[in-house]
Design goal:
This protein has about 100 residues and is of the alpha+beta class. It has a domain at about 30-95. The chain is built from 3 helices and 4 strands. Strands 2-3-1-4 form a 4-stranded antiparallel beta sheet, covered by helices on one side. Helix 2 (about 35-45) packs antiparallel against helix 3 (about 75-90). The longest helix has 13 residues, at about 75-90. The N and C termini lie far apart (about 35 Å).
Length: about 100
Amino acid sequence: MTDQKQEVDKVEETLVEFPCDFLIKVMGETNDDFANAMVKVIQAHEPKFDASKVDMRASSGGRFISLTCNVHVTSKSQLDSIYRALSEHPLVKYVL
């Protein structure tokens, strides 16, 4: 495979240009530790993640909570790792 072909393949893998700030939405049932747990998951993959970059909203009925996290990511593999770790967490219902 030529170097040019490899570069084209890498570009086609994602439409996101890295590094960048990326918004990740995490939803789960309301739990006192939900926000702290999600921050810790993200910090395991991005140690500089600042918890002040989290916007928290409760559902109208109060049963669910959603976090919008503004994460600075440097690569597709880092972003994929964060999504995978959040998705596997027992408190998480959805990750967008």
